[in-house]
Amino acid sequence: MSGRGIVLKSELDISEDIQSGTLVSVLEQHLPPPTPLQMMFPPGRAQPRRVAALAEQIVRAMPKPD
Predict the structure, then answer these.
(1) 3-state SS string over the chain?
(2) Whole-number pLDDT of residue 66
(3) Do 58 and 37 form a contact (C-beta atoms < 8 A)?
(4) CA distance linking residue 41 with residue 39, whole number of Å
(5) pLDDT at 60 over 70
(6) What is the per-residue pLDDT across 38-54, written as a single tens digit (0 to 9) for each?
(7) Which of 33, 15, 13 has the alpha carbon at shortest distance from 24?
């Protein structure tokens, strides 16, 4: 990145880079409102265990609404 540029990314995508100092947060007063995350499944079909496990992990990782 060479120290140039501004990007709007999900915290999930860049949290490690923020924590390590590779990226810094700027313009925090101008952030858009949070966008809901949706996970969709085909109707009437049982989900494979790996898909159910992924859904459970995502739910645990997401911040709880106020």
Answers:
(1) CCCCCCCCCCHHHHHHHHHHCCCCCCCHHHCCCCCCCCCCCCCCCCCCHHHHHHHHHHHHHCCCCC
(2) 67
(3) yes
(4) 7
(5) yes
(6) 888 888 888 899 998 99
(7) 15
CA angle 24, 2, 30 (to 5 degrees): 35
Amino acid at 55: A
Question: Which residue from 34, 29, 31, 33 is spatially nearest to 8, judged by alpha carbons?
Answer: 31
Which tokens in the block code for residue 14?
């860049």
Q: What is the pLDDT of residue 39?
A: 84
Q: How far apart are the first and last CA of the chain?
A: 35
How far apart, in whole angstroms, are the C-alpha atoms of residue 64 and residue 38? 14
The structure tokens listed for 30 are 């101008």
